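Hey, sorry to bother you again with one of my protein questions. A protein chain has come my way and I'm curious about its shape. I'm sending you its amino acid sequence along with the backbone structure tokens. I owe you a coffee for this, so here goes:
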Amino acid sequence: MGISMQFRFGRPRNCPRRCYHHNMKPCHRLAGLLVPALLLLSGCADRASAEDIVTLALDVPPTNLDPRIGIDATSERLTQLIFNSLVRRDGTSNLVPDLAESWEMPDSTTYIFHLRDNVRFHDGRPLEAKDVVYTFRSILDGSLLTPKASAYRKVASVEALDESTVQFRLSEPFAPFLWNLARGAIGIVPEGSGSEMAEHPIGSGPFVFDHYFRDAEILLRANPDYFGERPRLGAVRFKIVPEAIIRALELRKGTVDIALNVLPADMAEELRESPGLRLMDSEGTNYQYLAFNLQDPAFRDVRVRRAIAHAVDRQAIVESLWRDHARLADSILPPTNWAYFDGVTRYAYDPDRARAILDEAGITDLSFTYSTSTDETGLLVASVIQQQLREVGIDMEIRSNEFATFFADVQAGNFQMYSLRWIGGNNDPDILNYVFHSGMTPVDGGGNRGSYLNSDVDGWLDTAQSVVDVETRIENYAMIQKAVSDDLPYISLWYVDNVCVYNERIQGMRLYPAGDYEFLNHIWVEE
């Protein structure tokens, strides 16, 4: 279910063309805390380990390592290393074989997959068609409570034709079906797997789960019997470090080897020149947005949303807070996606236009609450947006909570405006259905948290899902993106670059557009 990989404005990495000095000061304060602390440690040259064990910093722990359940970015990135699925995405997000060597579609609602015959689970059991069937039936029959169930609601049946052949029948044509079978969206578990899978996952992937010390570390060891390209590392330790400044200090000290997308931009830039460390930056597809509760009286008038869009100086935020490690976005789909549409309505930074729109709407005292997590970067962005809106006469109060509480409020519709980030899921255009179809609210298992309703958009989404003709799908997705840019249930902010600070002893480093951990399959340690 490619659409599931979503994370928050709080999974820390977020963040406005006139460059306000106050926009920059918060980042400089962070840097001011970091520099003297780093100087204190400048004589330290400790290595994480003399072995081929690499330590990667996490800012938050996973919520659930059962690949049928976990939908947060940390969980899905880790389960991609532990589990396989029928297909996987390559470095350019195309679908390629994984457990299935090949597949065919005899008709528009039937998919037949032919499995590899040399795959074993980490406990030694062979992976067979019965395991694939069990994985999906446990989701479909309701025996497993999972937010991923909605992705497979059109599966009418799944059965093993023999030990190495699996057949899916759908209730109706569903063009995104293969994407929902990709590694990361789902993983194949052994037949009979129950709740223990969340705490002690058993997969068939390139890394074997060793242990999880809650809120401290997760250790994965290389799978010497992996059927694909085997990791060159012995093990990877995922160290959970909630504070950004501590993550930076541990990198400098050598007790952490890799920090991918978990450092504020100023900290990453400070570390660029540190002895023994390197910084790698690449364009990413992870998408940041502002979302409105369209049931709230403050935001029912689209003119209010358009005024806010003109009042937020996205470019200034990218330059001052993100240090140019982001690119402005105009659609939830990245420009590299085959369904991306360039003809959307754009909202340039124009505070005078914002004031005029509010005057036209007769609004003189707009005030509301902006919800965010306690993440440092998210709070900095919130404070900048607060100041920019104040300049056009809008009063925005910031309410921050620990991420789990913040996200629960968002899912329950207990918000007026918030910001989050879609990570990885926006590489599949079916995310437009997940986020904007009126029948995909959180109650329905979807991501339409602001209760957006446009009957034309619903019709185009239904058509795009039910036809396999690519040109027809592109045409419908274009109309959807244009309508959404006019209606503004979301204000697109930016696509965040992937920024990785790592120890120079790590060789073979490369980054993937969605910021996945697949690079761990290819790197090695050079002492």
